[in-house]
Model the fold of this input.
Amino acid sequence: AGKEIYVVADITVNEGNANAWKTAAPQDIKKWTPIGKTNRFKGTFDGGMHTISGLYSKETTANTGFFGGVESATIKNLQLLNSCFVSSSTDTGSITGVAPGGTIENIYSDAVVVSTNKRVGGLVGQTSKVTTIQNCGFDGSAESIYGSTDVLVGGLVGLVQSEGTQCQILNCMNSGTVSATATSDMGPEVGGLLGGKYTNKATSTLTVKNCFNIGTVNGPSGVTGDFGAFVGYNANGTFENVYATTESCSNTKTNPSGTEVVNEADVLGGKASEALSGLDFENAWATVMGYTPVLK
Done:
């Protein structure tokens, strides 16, 4: 509790292609044990905007990621690259499996995140309590292969959970692939930003503001469930200046109020500042010639 960790140089744990590791990791690969898997990390981790690459974790118990669990912690200023997190249990995300409270900011991840269980997020598997996720981007893949209920997969967060939760997601972007492969008709919930929010309690709030999804959302055909450009299950919350491209998802879910779907061709280069006028292009977002906007 209360520890401070600072990264002072780029770190590479394994070389190779993380996309291949989810099905066939080399026998000599160095395996990563998630920090705070049993006793949640409650301090400050500052990556100093360095990169950590080549992490490989394969877990059979809950809470899988760079961190297994963080609580009332600050995780910031990190690029997590070419890494793979595989789990056969609940709560899997590239940055942390669970985050009951705290701040996650200035994070970029292009990791492969795959679980044969429920609650999967590109960055965070499950969050609750008072949590802020801001200025973060995911450009990897988040996938659940599961044949039961409560399958929630999100580009940023799998599940916002619990009475008393106050979750804010601000200035974040998903450009990765989000998918669920159901082994039975059990209703997976898949969203470009969030898998879902599980409570309508008056004491539970969700605010998503100034966010953008251009990532592909895939749901299994022939099964019930919700697949949305923004959120899968229960979009109860406040959405403001939240955008997605029409190319990201063939929705089976009504988009929340405060969101807007735009054509990708209309948000390339300098056109983005007009089409996505709600985003803060002065402080948080930047236009790129020939491409969709990026976080600064």
Q: What stands out?
A: The chain is about 5% helix and 50% strand. The chain has a mean pLDDT of 92. The longest helix spans residues 18-24. Helices lie at 18-24, 272-275.
